[in-house]
TrEMBL record:
Pathway: One-carbon metabolism; tetrahydrofolate interconversion. It catalyses: (6S)-5,6,7,8-tetrahydrofolate + formate + ATP = (6R)-10-formyltetrahydrofolate + ADP + phosphate. ATP binds at residues 56-63. This is Formate--tetrahydrofolate ligase. Pfam families: FTHFS (PF01268). GO terms for molecular function: ATP binding; formate-tetrahydrofolate ligase activity. Keywords: ATP-binding, Ligase, Nucleotide-binding, One-carbon metabolism. Belongs to the formate--tetrahydrofolate ligase family. The lineage of its organism: Bacteria, Bacillati, Bacillota, Clostridia, Eubacteriales. SUPFAM superfamilies: P-loop containing nucleoside triphosphate hydrolases.
Length: 546
């Protein structure tokens, strides 16, 4: 694997005030940060949330912009760190490719990170599937907890896109093979174990949350991991995975990467402990929440921030001219072609996201992620439009130029951090009924006229009410391509209702997952997956993972 021009991780850690003895090295360029090293410091940094409008299928470059902004701030003398999620091998070998940024604003060693990294995803997969095996073993030997096989809620997971595993039958081949029942697989990024790990404050909290996870329903009661007695062994598997990872950008600025829940089917944020590390070891933290502000940012502001007692200081909304044209009616094959009319029409999507972030009380800056096909006329029009609305905006070419290409954005961000004042308030209160929370997200954030529930979803809501779980937060699984639950409704849709077809329970994470529209938790591969681009030479150097 070719590694060039990277600093030893001991030098990178020094930028965060960490000595070589403070970190656990995973080779020369990767390390983990122990929790006691994190918590012996005090929070001091400003917190910047990176989000975007609803993306095109290729994405709009939030990770690249997060990395580029951290490099830009470093260039202008600010002690900054990017705190990001780890990549999943599902999209890495599927449609989107890797998730370490791109061009001159990439996290390194990118190929290792996009593959196995420090093994966190493997640990989460193993812990999740061990629990599934324990449950099926309980059924095979005659359930002491009187679990009905038809009422088991716990599936298995795998860190690949594999549509054939969405619905499966296990235990075939006779009584010696186990209890025959229907189940399925989710992708590891959607595992509740992933969510628990990213929302836990420390190891005791991780163990407590693992014990709270619901694995089956038994009449009007729930069966939890602590009822089965598996929380200790799951914690043992996750012991090292609980520690956040330290790596570097192409310009050697530190990056803390940890956890990788998707934002369309999970809560889309890196771990609380990684964010704590950034807040205690730098002056400005740039953290990215997945997909558009209707998904990752909403979940950051309604789930992660209240849980971690965070007060974000600023939101940066990434926008590309091609995405605005796409939301304005331009076809995917033509979105690189200038079209000022489509650009104007697509502003409705950007404006809705800006309105939503203001609803949370956050100051907002717009980052225009520059592409070679952008025209000066369209860029100038967008800058004038943002100025007319009183919103700071700056173009940034961090893909081609790295930190230097983001210096204008960096100065704008620092000005807003000095002059702006966050009045952050979550959208809903934890004690509101679940239906009210869902309705607020649907109507106020997505712009829906209301919510319709399928029978399966209503059944789960009734079960949650009986269990006294109204205090759970809400993490809606929804398409990333539209504000609605229909990926074809672009721009700022109106006159639609959100359909909730089912609800998953993630009690250990502290939320429920209403499944909106056709959203599924195990993606499939496209006709020509990116896995076909991967090559390995005779020396073991890997190419094509980007």
């Amino acid at each position: 694997m070719m590694i060039q021009k990277l600093q030893p991780i001991t030098e990178v850690s020094g930028q965060l005030g960490l000595s070589p003895q403070d970190i656990i090295q995973y080779g020369p360029y990767k390390a983990k940060i122990p929790l006691d090293v994190i918590y012996q410091r005090q929070r001091r940094a400003k917190l910047v949330l990176m989000t975007s409008i609803n993306p095109t299928p290729a994405g709009e470059g939030k990770t690249t912009m997060s990395v580029g902004l951290s490099q830009a701030l470093t260039k202008i003398g600010v002690k900054a760190v990017a705190v990001l999620r780890e990549p999943s091998m599902g999209p890495t070998f599927g449609m989107k490719g890797g998730a370490t940024g791109g061009g001159a604003s990439r996290v390194e060693p990118s190929t290792e990170i996009n593959l196995h990294f420090t093994g966190d995803f493997h640990a989460i997969t193993a812990a999740h599937n061990l629990l599934a095996a324990i449950i099926d073993n309980e059924l095979f030997h005659g359930s002491r907890l009187q679990i009905n096989p038809k009422h088991v809620l716990w599936k298995r997971v795998l860190d690949v896109n594999d549509r054939a595993l969405r619905h499966v039958v296990i235990g075939l081949g006779g009584a010696s093979q186990g209890v025959t029942r229907e189940t399925g697989f989710d992708i590891t990024a959607a595992s509740e174990v992933m969510a628990v790990l990213t929302l836990a404050h420390d190891l005791p909290d991780l163990k407590r949350r693992l014990g709270r996870m619901v694995v089956a329903a038994r009449g009007n009661e729930m069966v939890s991991v602590s009822d089965i007695g598996a929380q200790e062994v799951l914690t043992a598997i996750l012991n090292e995975a609980m520690l956040p990872n330290l790596v570097q950008t192409k310009e050697h600025t530190p990056v803390i990467m940890h956890g990788g829940p998707f934002a369309n089917i999970a809560h889309g944020c890196n771990s609380i402990v990684a964010t704590e590390a950034g807040l205690r070891m730098s002056d400005v933290v740039i953290t990215e929440a997945g997909f558009g502000a209707d998904l990752g940012a909403e979940k950051f502001l309604d789930i992660k921030a209240p849980e971690a007692r965070l007060t974000p200081d600023l939101a940066v909304v990434v926008v590309t001219l091609r995405a605005l044209r796409y939301h304005g009616g331009q076809s995917l094959k033509d979105i690189s072609q200038p079209d000022l009319n489509a650009l104007r029409a697509g502003m409705s999507n950007l404006n809705k996201h800006l309105d939503n972030l203001k609803r949370f009380g956050l100051p907002v800056v717009v980052a225009i992620n520059k592409f070679p096909t952008d025209t000066k006329e369209e860029t100038d029009w967008l800058l004038r439009e943002m100025a007319r609305q009183g919103i700071g905006a700056a173009p940034a070419d961090v893909f081609a130029q790295g930190g230097q290409g983001g210096e204008m954005l960096g100065h704008l961000v620092m000005q807003e951090l000095r002059d702006g004042k966050s009045q952050y308030t979550p959208l809903y209160h934890a004690l509101e009924p679940l239906e009210e929370k869902i309705d607020k997200i649907a109507t106020q954030i997505y712009g829906a006229d209301g919510v319709d529930y399928a029978p399966a979803a209503l059944k789960t809501l009734r079960r949650l009410h009986k269990w006294g779980e109204d205090n759970l937060q809400v993490c809606i699984a929804k398409t990333q391509y539209s504000l609605s639950d229909n990926p074809k409704l672009l721009g700022r849709p109106e006159g639609f209702r959100l359909t909730i077809r089912d609800i998953d329970i993630a009690r250990g994470a502290g939320y429920i997952v209403p499944l909106a529209g056709d959203m599924i938790r195990m993606p499939g591969l496209p006709k020509e997956p990116t896995s076909f681009r991967v090559r390995v030479d005779d020396e073991g150097n890997i190419f094509g993972i980007e």
